[in-house]
Predict the 3D structure of the following.
Amino acid sequence: MNLNYRRKQRERQHAASQDDNPELTPHLEHQMVPRGDAQLITNKDELAEALAHVREQGVFAYDTEFIGEESYWPRICVVQLATTERVVLIDAVAVPDLGPIFELVADPTLLTIVHAGTQDLEPVRRVLGREPANTLDVQVAAAFAEMPWPAGLEKLVERFAGHKISKGHTFTNWDARPLSASQLRYAADDVRYLPLVWERLREELERRGTLDWAMRECELSSKIPARFDEESQIRRIMKSWPMKPAQIPTLRLITRMRDEIARGEDLPHRVVMPDETLAEIVKQRPISTQQLASVRGLPKRFMSKYGDTIAHAVEEGGRLPPEKLAHGKISEESGDDRARIDALLAIVGARCVASGIAPGMVLTRGDISRWWMTRESKSPVPLFDAGDWRIEAVGNWIEAFLKGEAGVSILWKDGRPFLAES
């Protein structure tokens, strides 16, 4: 995909964000919501003072604005931090060393509040070599308090702060300077209300008795997946371009090589070599740069720089033994199996909703299918891993339900379902 396409999309939205007099809702008047405009930080001294304040507070909200489609690693342009007293926006173009900010996020003595924070937390591990610590994702936690999964920030602020925020311009040229008043306002509001949202959400989770489950799931969600997942990329390519076992070793080598090139060039995989081009290389098996030149979609500069290496990998892959990928599907479902799996999914889903937990947070149809189809085999697939909070929430009940030792009774009251255990 041409990088210019995404950039043009950003430019169109960026033009709209330059209106410095947008119709914005006033800030909520509350002691846990900072008043006034956010402070824009553009030098190290200002940053050091702001981080000292955050450390003193002990609890802070964290977010980033980045451009992710033009480089291997997303390029952070703005970092937002908020306590109950202040909102600060760090201009990452003017202050590129963000290590001191990441140190706060990795400090287990501080509580970092995020919303859908997986991508925002990833640079902490990459820069510091340590995992984020003591992070709370309100999007995750809200799934334990009758909110859908996943819920947008606007919905959470409206539900738990009783306030509607103005939202938009998230896909703008965040690397352009100066930042407009609209951009600054939207960036600030991404963190301004999070301390209040978490305070009220935490109180509700405590009343429901689901706080421990929510905290455990937040801990799991902060475990950031690797940037390069070789197996998932191979399976994605083979879904569109099926391959024979003899071709899979070559596919694996070229997929791995593409990642190495993309990382070294700091470019997305699709820019270095689109999936279609990668598949064509595997199928055509060019073992020289002359043969490689006939493959469509490989940029000339990469062809010139890495052509010999790619051709060598193709030749090496051809010498490796065939490989057969294990299918995620254990066995074919019969008509009776499908009916029972679908029924169980509906029953468990209804029980979750009546319990105030988003069903999608608990399990999927694929989870139930794998468990159901292997439960009487020599190698049964567990529905949940040992120690998972889901065992306490539904796992034990499912086992008792299938034995005829437990049931489920759901009542409808005040416009919503309630769980009444039978």
